[in-house]
TrEMBL record:
The protein's name: Aldose 1-epimerase
The keyword NAD appears for this protein: no
Keyword Isomerase: yes
Active-site residues, Swiss-Prot/TrEMBL: 166 (proton donor), 298 (proton acceptor)
Signal peptide: none
Phylogenetic classification of the source organism: Eukaryota, Viridiplantae, Streptophyta, Embryophyta, Tracheophyta
Annotated InterPro entries: Aldose_1-epimerase, Aldose_1/G6P_1-epimerase, Gal_mutarotase_sf_dom, Galactose_mutarotase-like, GH-type_carb-bd
Family affiliation: Belongs to the aldose epimerase family.
Reaction(s) catalysed (UniProt annotation): alpha-D-glucose = beta-D-glucose
Organism of provenance: Rhynchospora pubera
UniProt binding sites for beta-D-galactose: 65-66, 166-168, 232
Pathway: Carbohydrate metabolism; hexose metabolism
Pfam families: Aldose_epim
Amino acid sequence: MAEIFELSNGTITVKISNWGATITSLLVPDSKGNVADVVLGFDTIDPYMRGEAPYFGCIVGRVANRIRDGKFTLDGVQYSLPINNGPNSLHGGITGYDKVLWEVAEHSKGEIPSITFKYHSKDGEEGYPGNVSITATYSLHSPNTLKLEMEAVPENKPTPISLAQHTYWNLAGHNSGSILDHTAQIWAEHMTPLDPTSVPTGEIIPVKDSPFDFTTEDKIGARIDKVPGGYDHNYVLDLGEEINGLKRAVKLKDPSSGRVLNLWTNAPGMQFYTANYVDGVAGKSGAIYLKQSGVCLETQGFPNAINEPKFPSIVVRPGENYNHTMVFEFSNDS
């Protein structure tokens, strides 16, 4: 049964469903103590289950992002996946991990509030090879930090695995309209340019002197008009300092409230997506979410990496584990 669970530590309160391991609400204070829900979503679980969410808050997989023409070859075997985004396969196919019920393995309200979800993905599910056991644990490790640890273990066949957390952030509050006044700093000197169907061409190019350069903090909307359609691109996380095996990916800031989000990860890439395809979705508390009313910071393996030998491999073989950690650190810059 699909439910919504709560984790709270007195500073942060997050609601998460076992449907898609989805964050539905995240309350954080600003410097004056004003609390806002900073993620887009729905009040109840029903719209998620009806497929009305453009991937709000969920974990996507078995492979996040796009695979060209829904095809790949692994160890000499060709696999075909459902086509659900132009000519390509997106976010694991028609029924990806965002559209299934996960098992609640553990829910702790102790000193470190946490919840662990498990899902068993079967051989042939959405065209992917092999059985895979997936675990996702959300925890509030410190007063201002939400941590997500994703693990996947292939049981009997090699398979591509690349999970992503697809929350749409608006640090002014989910119902505050455009995020184009938010500032972003991305710890990436390179990105992967796209073909006309939004799949990487295979090149890795510098962001310097382009509208994709967020190596220093800048307004998201400052140069977005030079990016046809808006940002929906994979950044190569090659700049960040490493702490405890995690590197800094991005700093997002809302100037109106002063809320800041720093994201740390061990993934090689991050999709920076400015909600270009959100168009009048009826969300929480009567909010209507329009284009660019949120921003996604999806740390991931590179899109279409299974077909690009130059990209970091996303193939995981039996006996190996896939591990992907994200730490969301909230603060205030008043």
